[in-house]
Amino acid sequence: MFLKSDSGTRFIRLGPWTQALILAGGAAVVAWTIIVSAVLLIDSIGSGSAAERTRLSFLEFETRLDTLSKERDQRAAEAAAAQQRFTVALEQVSRMQSALLSSEERRRELETGIGLMGKTLRTAMTERDTARAEVANLTGATEGENIRVASVDELGETLEFVSAALDRTAAERDAMEQVADGAKAEADDIAYEMRLLEERHDEIFAQLEDAVTISLEPLDQVFTSVGIDPQDLIAEVQRGYSGQGGPLGPVMPAESGQAESAAAAADFARARTIFEGLDRLNFYRIAVEKTPLALPLRTSFRFTSGFGRRWGRKHEGIDLAGAHGSPILATADGVVVKAGWESGYGQMVEIRHPYGMTTLYGHMSKIRVSVGQKVSRGDQIGDMGNTGRSTGTHLHYEVHVSGAPVNPMTFIKAATNVF
Description:
By secondary structure, this protein is α+β, with helices and mostly antiparallel strands. Helices cover 59% and strands 17% of the residues. Strands 3, 6, 7, 8, 9, 10, 11, 12, 13 and 14 form a ten-stranded antiparallel sheet that branches. A two-stranded antiparallel ribbon has the order 1-2. Helix 2 packs parallel to helix 4.
């Protein structure tokens, strides 16, 4: 190797081993460069595929949430329609009951009138028979020798009077028969109308029974799906809403035990069943307001972590990521029992609801309620943040039943049958 400069020319001689070493080093550098480039390229492709799969998963979850929201709106519309149908049917029952009572009073009045007309007719026929007997006696008396008749003129006047009385009696009898026939026809018409009313009555009862059943079944499924016994829940609600007083009385009066017929007793039993179903439906409505079935967010969010084990530790809630400062809402009526800093949760709010349930909202950036404050479903209790042990802006949401954590998604999915 020759090295030329202004002052002279120098050369360096490289031996075979030195040249081999330089070539080997150059080849190693080139090979290392190729391997590193390949590894980086493969890692870039792999991370891109993972990001694409994550993005598709999020899109699928958001699509599912949109579907659930549409189903919730549809169920709400169906519930409103069922409630409207029930109100219309109840008004029809009231009108039919009034018409039935009115027709029953008319029937009784007609039966009383028919009885009086029959009694009057029997009295008139008895008087007619008595008059005929007297005429016969008078005729026989004139034929005897020992009976003296005052005069032929007096006998003729008597006969004319009796004949006129008989004619009037016959005319009254015919009139009474016509009135009786008319009353009988009217009674038949009333009986036909009563049968029509009874058929309509049965139809309305069937509609009401169907409406109550359709309204109760989804609510039974809601509380059963989240592990709450509907019977125990109703009993607990009744204990808190059983007051009664003043001019108000029970919605359904007690049966008097003097029902006019077996049909009336059956109708009373059906009406009692319907009112009991309505009462149960009302208790369910109260329980739903106090059960955490709603979502704590109404803004856009991503479901980032579920209930269960995470990184070897038990994760007792779900994580919902959204924009910093997004409003966080109470999911049911209750009382705030904690509002402040909690280790791990950061700025945290805990709400106690009736029936042994509590909800917890963690990692807030701002708390908007205080301990002891009563809140209702949908009230804003804080803003989404990144406080405590958190890797990004999100809401950590927990639901506890009788002190034990349960999966909040169970309540949220069950709510699609109510809202």
